[in-house]
């Protein structure tokens, strides 16, 4: 058996920028996985999922269907099966396998192994029993189970997971699709960031890169939608949207409860400026809420969704703020929405400059071999997204 370090180096090598030998990459991936005992025989996965029976299907995304399974040793798994008609899914498969092989954190979903069998390509994950956050928060009668303590713990866990991806993993990883449906909850309600099909490695010496746009409507930062300008602050923006969704129980992308406000962010900001931010709380958490803590999280959500990316805190600062008792925070400026233009303003002293903010230095474009976007926009044109039939990501027509 090869050592883990060598395994990672070999796995990274076959997905180098500019690699064009797709078939060879898949064969190399299978060979390395077998050596490292990360390879799952196809027959084992067929048996575990009852031949990928419809009753075992957990969901459907741009990548393909996901099935629940049970191995002979009793372990429960989730099997992501690449749709054979999806060229985009093939890129996502390679991207996710490459990135998650190097990632291990309590708040990031654990990739157990791979399977390449003829035209079949599968990724095998730990099964997360409480499924995705959006199913509990928006689509089920289990919403009451998400009391304030659980929601606060979920916010803190997602923040720690993003901090790990941005600063503490082997390379800076920008997820690009942080949203409720990509947060899984285990039996102890621990949140796990999932779906790395669109994630990007980020060069350490850059403040941002210019890239084609990929993500989900309602969660993408305005500078990313307008100019394809990607930095860790794009993930920070998405996190801020998710925080406000968790507190309000309302989805930003379909927000329509208040006709005077065009988005959840605008509605919350108006309430905040009037000193009535707690009015946006989901009725399901009113009884269990700690008002000072809720107010702090609302303000953090607004700070993370500011129009100017330089004013948004880093995830390290967010984690620090969440770990302290509620106190005085900076005043958030108006939140950004896709299509809006923000006015540059002076950075508050409390927010330190970091290499993750969108800045003035020259940028580079990643090699398209690692690009996994399902939406695109040039720096001069903005195209309105239409919805993916599975609700995964917007696509541009």
Automatic annotation (TrEMBL):
InterPro entries: CR_Ser/Thr_kinase (IPR052059), Kinase-like_dom_sf (IPR011009), Prot_kinase_dom (IPR000719), Ser-Thr/Tyr_kinase_cat_dom (IPR001245), Ser/Thr_kinase_AS (IPR008271). GO terms for molecular function: ATP binding; protein kinase activity. Residues 326-397 are annotated as: Disordered. The keyword Nucleus does not apply. Signal peptide: none annotated. It comes from the Eukaryota. Residues 372-384 have a biased composition (Low complexity). Residues 52-334 form the Protein kinase domain. CDD domains: STKc_IRAK. Keywords: ATP-binding, Kinase, Nucleotide-binding, Transferase. Coiled coil: none annotated. This is Protein kinase domain-containing protein. It comes from Rubroshorea leprosula.
């Amino acid at each position: 058996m090869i050592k883990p370090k060598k395994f990672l180096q070999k796995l990274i090598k076959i997905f180098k920028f500019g690699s064009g030998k797709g078939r060879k990459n898949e064969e190399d991936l299978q060979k390395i996985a077998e050596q490292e005992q990360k390879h799952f025989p196809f027959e084992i996965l067929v048996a575990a999922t009852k031949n990928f029976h419809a009753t075992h299907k957990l969901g459907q995304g741009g990548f393909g269907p996901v099935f629940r399974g049970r191995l002979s040793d009793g372990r429960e798994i989730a099997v992501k099966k690449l749709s054979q008609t999806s060229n985009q899914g093939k890129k996502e498969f390679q991207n996710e396998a490459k990135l998650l092989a190097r990632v291990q954190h309590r708040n990031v979903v654990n990739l157990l192994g791979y399977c390449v069998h003829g035209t079949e390509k599968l990724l095998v994950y730990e099964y997360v029993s409480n499924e995705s956050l959006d199913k509990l928060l928006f689509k089920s009668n289990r919403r009451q189970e998400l009391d304030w303590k659980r929601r606060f713990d979920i916010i803190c866990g997602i923040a720690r997971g993003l901090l790990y991806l941005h600063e503490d993993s082997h390379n800076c990883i920008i997820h690009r699709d942080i949203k409720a449906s990509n947060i899984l909850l285990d039996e102890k309600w621990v949140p796990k960031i999932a779906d790395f099909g669109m994630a990007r490695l980020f060069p350490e010496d850059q403040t941002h890169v210019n890239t084609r746009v990929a993500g989900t409507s309602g969660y993408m930062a305005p500078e990313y939608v307008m100019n394809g300008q990607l930095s860790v602050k794009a993930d920070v923006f998405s996190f801020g949207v998710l925080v406000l969704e968790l507190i309000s129980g309302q989805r930003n992308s379909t927000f329509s409860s208040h006709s005077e406000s065009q988005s959840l962010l605008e509605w919350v900001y108006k309430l905040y400026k009037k000193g009535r931010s707690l009015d946006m709380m989901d009725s399901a958490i009113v009884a269990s809420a700690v008002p000072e803590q809720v107010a702090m999280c609302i303000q953090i959500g607004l700070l993370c969704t500011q129009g100017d990316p330089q004013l948004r805190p880093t995830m390290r600062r967010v984690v620090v703020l969440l770990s302290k008792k509620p106190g005085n925070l900076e005043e958030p400026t108006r939140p950004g929405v896709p299509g809006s233009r923000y006015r540059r303003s002076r950075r508050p002293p409390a927010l330190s400059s970091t290499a993750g903010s969108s800045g003035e230095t020259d940028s580079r474009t990643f090699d398209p071999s690692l690009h996994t976007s399902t939406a695109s926009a040039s720096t001069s044109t903005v195209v309105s997204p239409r919805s993916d039939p599975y609700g995964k990501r917007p696509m541009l027509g």
